[in-house]
Design goal:
This is Putative conjugal transfer protein TraE. InterPro entries: Pilus_assembly_TraE. It comes from Aeromonas salmonicida subsp. salmonicida. The protein has four helices and five strands; from the N terminus they run ααααβββββ. With 185 residues, the chain is α+β, with helices and mostly antiparallel strands. It folds into two domains: 43 residues; 118 residues, Roll (Nuclear Transport Factor 2, Chain: A), CATH 3.10.450. Strands 1, 2, 3, 4 and 5 form a five-stranded antiparallel beta sheet that branches. Strand 2 and strand 3 form a beta hairpin. The longest helix is centred in the N-terminal third of the chain and has 41 residues. The model has no long low-confidence stretch (mean pLDDT 80).
């Protein structure tokens, strides 16, 4: 009789251990699902971080601060307005990687126009930045500078002082638009 009692005690202990393990597995799975939802719903999107920085900026807020947009515009202006026949392909690829999907068509057309002129005429586009600032009402990072078109090392025409505006998607830093604000006086 005592042997039967010992067996039933062993079965009860094994059953409690199995139930304990089932509970631990269920608890772990529930925690993983909860953490996955938290990460999916509450984590901020990845932002583009400029590689060349000349000012401190913050990514603490969802939208970033004015210095963040100025740094993005600084980097993009260096890339987009300094092109030769050799670099136009690279510039186009980087531009489209940096652009928001809604801006691809417009920016691709702009790059293709630039590329056609560069390749057919042998031009080099050169842009010297002189100032960058963020205009909060229009949400444009404005770059002021001198733009030259060169054939070889010789300028074609007179250099022009110009303004370009860059608009970015606040959550990710993706490029939305490049606005030609015309000649600067």
């Amino acid at each position: 009789m005592s042997e039967v009692k010992n067996n039933s005690d062993d079965v009860a202990k094994a059953s409690r251990k199995i139930n304990g393990w089932k509970f631990m597995v269920l608890l772990t799975m529930t925690a993983n699902v909860a953490l996955s939802f938290k990460i999916f719903l509450y984590d901020p999107p990845v932002k583009h971080v400029p590689t060349r920085t000349c000012k401190e900026y913050s990514l603490a807020s969802k939208a970033g601060d004015s210095a963040y947009y100025e740094q993005l515009a600084y980097e993009d202006a260096l890339l987009f307005f300094n092109m030769t026949a050799d670099t136009v392909g690279l510039s186009a690829r980087v531009l489209l990687r940096r652009a928001a999907p809604t801006a691809h068509t417009k920016l691709k057309a702009w790059i293709n126009d630039q590329a056609k002129e560069i390749k057919t005429k042998g031009y080099k586009f050169v842009f010297f930045q002189s100032d960058i600032y963020f205009d909060a009402p229009t949400q444009l990072a404005i770059v002021r500078g001198v733009q030259e078109i060169r054939l070889g090392s010789r300028p074609v025409g007179d250099p022009k002082e110009v303004l370009y505006g860059f608009r970015y998607k606040p959550e990710t830093g993706q490029l939305l638009d490049i606005v030609d604000l015309g000649e600067s006086k």
